[in-house]
Amino acid sequence: MRPTGKVSVVAAVNDLARDRGVSANDLVRTVAPYVDGRGGGKADVAQGGGSDASRIDEALAAVTAAVGAAAG
Predict the structure, then answer these.
(1) Alpha-carbon gap, residue 24 to 44, rounded angstroms
(2) Which domains occur in the chain, in start order?
(3) Three-state SS string across the chain, please?
(4) Which side of the chain, N or C, has fewer Cβ within a 10 Å radius?
(5) How far is it, in rounded angstroms, from Cα 56 to Cα 20?
């Protein structure tokens, strides 16, 4: 199979994380600009995709920071 460069994003957040302010929807929306994509969903589960995998390391760093900021 040849790599396509496409990116799939799925986030799931448990009750404890949601109680601390983490939202799966927010996490997917955090990643989307880095991968030239879009997505969304609910606070517990969200999904999206993009067409540029070249900035995936930046996207993962942004999500890590977003979780840290939301959870305190």
Answers:
(1) 6
(2) 7-71 (3.10.310.40)
(3) CCCCCCEEEEEECCHHHHHCCCCHHHHHHHHHHHHCEEEEECCCEEEEEECCHHHHHHHHHHHHHHHHHHHC
(4) N
(5) 26
Higher pLDDT, 26 or 3: 26
Quick: pLDDT tens for 6-51: 999 999 999 999 999 999 999 999 999 999 999 999 999 999 999 9
C-alpha span between 10 and 15 (Å, rounded): 17
Query: Are the beta carbons of 28 and 9 closer than 8 angstroms?
Result: yes
User: Which amino acid, 13?
Assistant: V
Per-residue model confidence (pLDDT) at position 3: 65
